[in-house]
Design a protein that fits this description.
Elements: H1 3-14, E1 31-32, E2 41-43, H2 47-50, E3 54-56, E4 61-65, E5 68-72, E6 79-82, E7 89-91, E8 105-109, E9 112-116, E10 126-128, E11 137-138, E12 153-156, E13 162-166, E14 168-169, E15 174-180, E16 186-195, E17 219-227, E18 230-237, E19 246-252, E20 260-261, E21 268-269, E22 276-285, E23 291-298, E24 307-316, E25 323-325, E26 334-335, E27 352-353, E28 360-362, E29 403-405, E30 413-431, E31 447-454, E32 461-466, E33 475-496, E34 501-511, E35 524-527, E36 534-537, E37 546-552, E38 560-565, E39 570-572, E40 581-589, E41 592-593, E42 600-602
Antiparallel strand pairs: 1-26, 2-3, 4-5, 5-6, 6-7, 8-9, 9-10, 10-11, 12-13, 13-15, 14-17, 15-16, 17-18, 18-19, 19-20, 19-21, 22-23, 23-24, 24-25, 27-34, 28-30, 29-34, 30-33, 30-34, 31-32, 31-33, 35-36, 36-39, 37-38, 37-40, 40-41, 40-42
Length: about 600
């Protein structure tokens, strides 16, 4: 055994961070950008039927164990750990579920992590005091609920009592039951029905893209938090494949209820932007006392359950305990937990998107072919496929569209003309799977490239060199050590493991040198006869690339938002019928964000 192999083995066994290696460098970043750039596993649900291959990461259960974070994700054949929520290292445990855990539940109980996630829905709680090694042990006491256990959550209260919450259904409610930690975690008493969806009065619980489907919505993914003397039971709805996938919350003074619907619902909602959706998540406290919400975001191209993980600042309002998750500019660069900011709720860097719909050129021929997907759009469970693979898809801020190169060699490059000189701070490269034919977690996955910048399109400077990279980075986020002045940015391809080079988005972030857009004028709100909906209108702002709408039930707590590009006006379809709301809007472009409009209200 070489010295390097011995060192790496010791690090893995003791759970300490890996040392930097050539081509596998630890990120020294102050920022991150959603979706999280982790080595998502390839799913194999349809391999035997039609050989569809796709990555996915969903239903994150994140816990803080001895100051380190552990993230358990559906069907991943292991889990991830991090000390800083920036570098996430995958752990292949000594013992684990053969088919991967399904919507796993995780909690800290004493000196161990306990977990429940058997894909069959009929399994025992497993546990370990060394998650970095992953010597998970079972007590063989199957928790055999009448309908099985779907999308479980384990919660350990301050008094050491343990509770199980579960369900994933468009029929059955979220249920809860106490478990006996002294007797193999078997249930104590009968399981209780806690609450179900009420889409007739809760507009955000309606199914479909923008809540426009008549199909029955799904309730799923409970996650319990306790803050002060209040229990917050989070839940996901209305469907994981839609842009409006969100998390809501019910509150109680008792872990098994009765529970009361929070009037400020939903708490985690991201219907617009590049990557949409923020449901079936978990909330965890970092080592500085701040809360973070990890959530599921939708792609749904190769299969409706093709998903990714997002991370957002979260917390509780100090005056009334209202829970919040801030998703505003939620797929733009944000400051990491260990970067000091004035207000944890607002960690946005202010680095704007410079590349949206700018001229793109490439020396690669366009692929001619069709994707191999599981298409359920006709049944109403997916959006229709986007099969235009032209280069203009590379910066249209739609993760479901993508450019596919017919060639995959080290002579391919893609250029974006920013049209003006801007100060570039960060790059995000989002690769997509087109006929990938990869399954599981092969150790050969990597993407190799250079990022170059130019002021004139003739003289190029390398600003990021990943040509020797050995890390799998499907959503490669690169924070530059210092900003680079550039008009042109080039992706210079070297190698990727997939048969085809496919990029859903090349995103360039930084600061423009021009004027901020003006505040939108004539902002109006008209509640529809269906009180779940409101029409928000305003005059177009010259030079604006897009707008962000904010709303909430208190004028000083507009914690919900939606980002839209290009055109003004927004039909918000996520309101509760018996609630008064307040609204505000702002415009943005490459140079920054306008002042917000006046706050208006509807009864």
């Amino acid at each position: 055994m070489t010295a390097k192999v011995l060192l790496l083995t010791i690090c893995l066994l003791k759970g300490v961070p890996l040392p930097a290696q050539d081509g596998l460098l630890k990120k020294e970043f102050k920022t991150y950008c959603n979706p999280l750039d982790i080595d998502y596993s390839y799913m194999s649900h349809y391999r035997a039927k039609n050989n569809v291959s796709y990555r996915s990461g969903a239903d994150p259960a994140v816990v803080n164990f001895n100051g380190k974070f552990y993230m358990f994700v559906t069907r991943s054949h292991g889990y991830w750990t991090s000390t800083d929520m920036s570098d996430w290292r995958f752990i292949k445990p000594q013992s684990w579920y053969f088919n991967g855990s399904n919507a796993p539940a995780a909690a800290v109980h004493g000196d161990k992590i306990i977990l429940l996630g058997d894909p069959s829905g009929q399994g025992a709680v497993i546990e370990t005091n060394n998650p970095d090694l992953g010597d998970w042990k079972t007590n063989f006491a199957v928790i055999n609920m009448p309908g099985g256990v779907q999308d479980p959550n384990l919660f350990v209260d301050d008094d050491g009592k343990v509770y199980l919450y579960e369900e994933s259904s468009n029929k059955w409610p979220i249920r809860g039951v106490e478990l006996d930690p002294e007797n193999y975690y078997i249930p104590i008493g009968e399981q209780k029905d806690l609450f179900n969806l009420v889409p007739d009065t809760h507009g955000w619980e309606r199914f479909g893209q923008d809540h426009r489907s008549d199909l029955k919505p799904f309730i799923e993914g409970p996650w319990m938090m306790k803050h002060n003397d209040t229990y917050y039971l989070e839940y996901g709805a209305p469907g994981t494949q839609w842009n409006v996938y969100a998390d809501g919350v019910y509150t109680s003074k008792n872990p098994l209820g009765p529970f009361e619907y929070a009037p400020y619902n939903p708490i985690s909602y991201k219907p617009g932007g590049f990557l949409k959706g923020s449901g079936h998540g978990s909330t965890v406290r970092d080592n500085n006392g701040n809360y973070w919400h990890f959530a599921t975001m939708a792609i749904s191209v190769n299969y409706k359950f093709e998903r990714r993980i997002g991370m957002y600042p979260a917390g509780f309002e100090p005056d009334n305990g209202q829970m919040f998750v801030n998703t505003a500019y939620g797929d733009y660069p944000h400051y990491l937990p260990y970067t000091e900011v004035e207000n944890h709720k607002n960690r946005f860097t202010g680095w704007m998107l410079l590349s949206y719909k700018k001229p793109v050129s490439t020396n690669s021929p366009l692929v001619e072919g069709k994707p191999n997907v599981v298409d359920e759009s006709e049944e109403g469970y997916m959006q229709e496929q986007i099969t235009d693979f032209d280069s203009n898809r590379i910066n249209d801020e739609e993760i479901r569209s993508y450019w596919v190169s017919a060639a995959n060699n080290d002579s391919i490059h893609v250029d974006i003309d920013l049209e003006k000189v801007h100060d570039v701070h960060a790059i995000q490269l989002n690769f997509q799977d087109y006929q990938s034919n990869i399954y599981g977690r092969p150790n050969t996955l990597r993407q190799q490239f250079k990022i170059q910048a130019s002021l004139d399109g003739k003289n190029w400077k390398t600003i990021a060199d990943y040509s020797q990279n050995r890390r799998d980075m499907p959503h490669g986020y690169i924070e530059l050590k210092k900003p680079e002045a550039a008009r042109y940015v080039r992706y210079d391809h070297v190698y990727c493991t997939n048969n085809y080079l496919a990029i859903s988005e090349l995103r360039i972030f930084g600061k423009g040198r021009g004027k901020l857009p003006k505040t939108p004028k004539k902002f109006r709100a008209r509640r529809q006869d269906d009180r779940r909906n409101v029409d928000l209108t305003w005059k177009p702002v010259e030079g604006a690339k897009g707008y962000v709408v904010y709303w909430g039930i208190h004028a000083d707590k507009l914690n919900l938002s939606a980002l839209l590009y290009d055109e003004p006006n927004y039909e918000l379809r996520a309101l509760n019928t018996d609630q008064k709301y307040y609204y505000q809007v702002e415009a943005f472009n490459e140079n920054g964000i306008s002042k917000r409009s006046e706050i208006i209200a509807t009864e």
